[in-house]
Design goal:
- The protein is an alpha/beta fold.
- It has a domain at 394-514.
- It has helices spanning 29-36, 42-46, 50-69, 74-94, 113-148, 152-159, 164-169, 171-192, 195-207, 216-230, 235-252, 257-273, 277-288, 295-303, 307-321, 325-338, 345-369, 503-508, 511-514, and strands spanning 394-397, 420-439, 448-464, 469-478, 496-498.
- Strands 1, 2, 3, 4 and 5 form a 5-stranded mixed β-sheet that branches.
- The longest helix is centred in the N-terminal third of the chain and has 36 residues, at 113-148.
- The termini are far apart.
- Residues 1-14 have a biased composition (Pro residues).
- The chain crosses the membrane at residues 29-47, 52-68, 74-95, 116-134.
- Residues 1-22 are annotated as: Disordered.
- Keywords: Membrane, Transmembrane, Transmembrane helix.
């Protein structure tokens, strides 16, 4: 037997492997286009194109994020529109030529379920966009109406409800709303601050492009007037700024004329009830020193003019009670000069006299107590007059009345008892009286010497305290020379000496004033 020498059968033929392409699912063209019209790649999902669907989702998410960050950025909005159109057209391109008969599993005449799904998703997306746009428009419009009425609290609360979805779908509207919200926050801050600070913050609101409240001008003026009433800053500067604001409001927003008048009337009503009369007087003085042309300002100011003189007198009385005598005198004087025929003029005249008397008292009391009256004689109208029979109580400078036995009736115990102020200078050397020879005892270096005695001379000036006028000026020389004994101090005996005088002689110098 011989081995089988036939050749082996050839190996089976093999084909090279090729990458598998994604199989496009047959989808109704309208369903694919509507699915991609949602901007989330639903059409690609229906077509079994997961990569394209992922790209669509990522691209749409990126563009929505960019629009949420910057809703007014036009290039981003144009790019999103182009992106949406591209996806929609691409879905149409991928499904062109599709045989609708293959897509009707439910039989002729029935709408495919996939089409209903896609159209429903597109309709939901469209309704969401329309709803968000309508909600943003209504929110911003309502907030604008609230702010226009001055209710920024309600406007801010409404505008704070706008979210990223509103910014994406209604960029211009939400941007306007955010501008209003920023303005309202400034206004609410101004109204919560102290009047002076709030008035400055109110300027920032009025300059803001989102500001819609025309009443901001009068409100700022009201804050400035509150600052003036508080007296915590320069009253005149606050008043000037407030009324300048009111005048500007009348020019720029005539519809606020009633509010301007109300602000002025409220100010004058508050001033009428304010117990700080001097502050009120300062405000009134400034107001009534101006020339007002606008009737909204001039009329209420004219109507309240009657309170001005009353406040001037009230202020003068308060300052008098507080011992602010010079200020009280000035207030009474200003009132009497401006309203000499007013019902309060008689009482104010008497009160002014009392204030001036008190000023004079304080002045002469200081001069007498400080020993300066003789250099600066001044009147005190309430002092007793220097007339009639004496004695006339004296306030004496230059010697101590009690040391020389002055009667008590000659000595003034207080300013109100003082009739005369006597100013005494001396004793000084007067005329020569006599020369006497003395024998000196040890330890004198010389046993004998002569001493010339001179009279003790006193210069006396007398003022009537009531008028401050000089009523007497004279010189007296007193003293007896050559005493039996004489004591000296120093190394050598004196050659001259003043004559000794008695208490009686000193008192006699003032007899003429007591008659």
């Amino acid at each position: 037997m011989y081995p089988d020498m036939s050749p082996p059968p050839p190996p089976p033929e093999t084909k090279p492997l090729t990458p598998r392409k994604p199989v496009t699912r047959p989808v109704d063209q309208l369903a694919a286009v509507a699915g991609n019209a949602t901007a989330f790649g639903l059409g690609y999902m229906l077509l079994n194109r997961p990569r394209l669907a992922a790209i669509a989702l990522i691209g749409t998410a990126f563009l929505l994020y960019a629009l949420a960050l910057d809703p007014e950025n036009l290039p981003w909005r144009i790019l999103f529109g182009l992106w949406w159109i591209a996806m929609t057209l691409h879905a149409w391109h991928l499904t062109r030529g599709t045989d609708a008969a293959l897509l009707d599993p439910d039989g002729p005449g029935r709408v495919p379920r996939v089409r209903l799904l896609a159209l429903g998703a597109a309709a939901i997306a469209l309704l969401m966009v329309a709803g968000l746009r309508l909600d943003a428009w209504l929110t911003v419009r309502g907030a604008a109406a609230a702010q226009t009425e001055g209710d920024c609290a309600a406007a801010a609360q409404s505008l704070e409800s706008l979210e990223a979805a509103h910014r994406i779908t209604s960029g211009a509207v939400t941007a306007d709303g955010e501008e209003q919200l920023e303005a309202c926050r400034i206004l609410l801050q101004a109204l919560s601050e102290e009047p002076q600070v709030g008035a400055n913050t109110m300027v920032d609101y009025m300059d803001h492009p989102g500001a819609l409240w025309e009443g901001a001008g009068p409100e700022r003026a009201d804050l400035l007037l509150a600052t003036a009433r508080s007296g915590e800053s320069d009253i005149e500067s606050a008043l000037e700024a407030a009324f300048a604001q009111l005048a500007t409001t009348l020019e720029t927003t005539p519809g606020q004329s009633d509010r301007v008048r109300e602000v002025v009337e409220d100010l004058l009503t508050d001033l009428a009830a304010d117990r700080l009369a001097c502050k009120v007087m300062q405000i009134n003085t400034w107001i009534y020193a101006q020339q007002w042309d606008a009737p909204e300002l001039a009329e209420p100011i004219a109507d309240a003019a009657g309170q001005v003189p009353v406040r001037m007198v009230d202020c003068a009385r308060l300052r008098s009670e507080a011992a602010e005598l010079e200020d009280a005198r000035d207030a009474y004087t200003a009132f009497l000069a401006a309203y000499p025929d007013h019902d309060l003029a008689a009482a104010a005249t008497d009160e002014l006299y009392a204030v001036e008397t008190a000023i004079e008292y304080d002045n002469v009391d200081g001069l007498l107590s400080g020993g300066e009256y003789c250099d600066n004689p001044a009147p005190y109208r309430a002092a007793p007059a220097y007339e009639g029979e004496g004695p006339h109580a004296m306030w004496t400078f230059g010697l101590d009345p009690s040391e020389y036995g002055f009667p008590g009736s000659w000595q003034a115990g207080s300013v109100n008892e003082t009739v005369l102020v006597t100013c005494v200078e001396g004793p000084e050397q007067g005329k020569h009286l006599e020369t006497c020879r003395y024998a000196w005892e040890d330890p004198s270096p010389i046993p004998y010497s002569s001493v010339s005695f001179h009279a003790s001379r006193f210069e006396i000036k007398v003022y009537e305290l009531r008028t401050g006028a000089e009523v007497a000026s004279y010189t007296e020389e007193i003293g007896s020379p050559c005493p039996n004994e004489m004591t000296y101090y120093g190394a050598f005996p004196p050659n001259e000496a003043l004559a000794d005088f008695s208490d009686k002689e000193v008192r006699e110098m003032f007899y003429r004033l007591m008659d």
